[in-house]
Write a structure and sequence with these properties.
This protein is α+β, with helices and mostly antiparallel strands. The chain folds into two domains: about 80 residues, Ubiquitin-like (UB roll); about 80 residues, DNA polymerase, domain 1 (Orthogonal Bundle), CATH 1.10.150.120. About 25% of the residues lie in helices and about 15% in strands. The protein has a five-stranded mixed β-sheet with strand order 2-1-5-3-4, with helices on one face. A hairpin with a 2-residue loop joins β3 and β4. α2 crosses α5. The longest helix has 16 residues. The N terminus is likely disordered.
Length: about 190
């Protein structure tokens, strides 16, 4: 009957469908069983206790949940966990190495690129991914194509702003964010 919940014939709603995965997060392997409807954001925060990744809008609009999957930036609130089985995932907790901050983390502090800090983990992961995209010659609205070898030291502030436009900061720390990314690129 239209409008009624799908049932198993006994009147009960069907249970969740789960799958066993091997997640590689921040260089460590994690066997985990997840609901096939579960987002990577919820898996990281609620099940793996990696709370650096933030739940902002939960609609892919703010970028606070940005992580790296296979070195490319993704919004974890829009990514189903089942789609990242056996792929390398890096969260903000995985950017530093042996207690030494990633150069972007140090530059964010040096350039006062944060205020409340809620968006900072997503900004950092997005900046790491963005610099890799530029180095690989990916185009943007500012530069239609980056043929040949890319000189990151010539990355203009306009280009940085365009490429980081999917990450919002309610506090307005954009000048510091752009300066920090530019410092690392140069």
């Amino acid at each position: 009957m239209k409008g009624e919940a799908n049932t198993n014939g006994d009147g009960a709603a069907p249970g969740p469908v789960t799958v066993d995965l091997r997640l590689s997060v921040n260089g460590r392997r994690h066997p985990i069983t997840v609901d096939t409807r579960e987002t990577l954001l919820d898996t990281l925060r609620e099940r793996m206790d990696l709370t650096g990744t933030k739940k902002g809008c939960d609609h892919g609009q703010c970028g606070a949940c940005t992580v790296l999957v296979g070195g490319r930036r993704v919004k974890s609130c829009l990514t189903l966990t089942v789609t990242v089985d056996d792929r390398d995932i890096t969260t903000v907790e995985g950017l530093s190495a042996d207690g030494v901050p990633h150069p972007l983390q140090a530059a964010f502090i040096e350039n006062d690129a944060l205020q409340c800090g809620y968006c900072t983990p997503g900004q950092l992961c997005s900046a790491v991914g963005m610099l890799a995209e530029v180095a690989d010659g990916w185009p943007s609205a500012v530069t239609p194509g980056l043929d040949g070898e890319v000189d990151l030291s010539k990355l203009a502030d306009e280009e940085i702003r365009e490429r980081m436009s999917g990450n919002l900061c309610r506090c307005g720390a954009y000048p510091g964010i752009v300066a920090a990314i530019g410092q690392v690129a140069r």
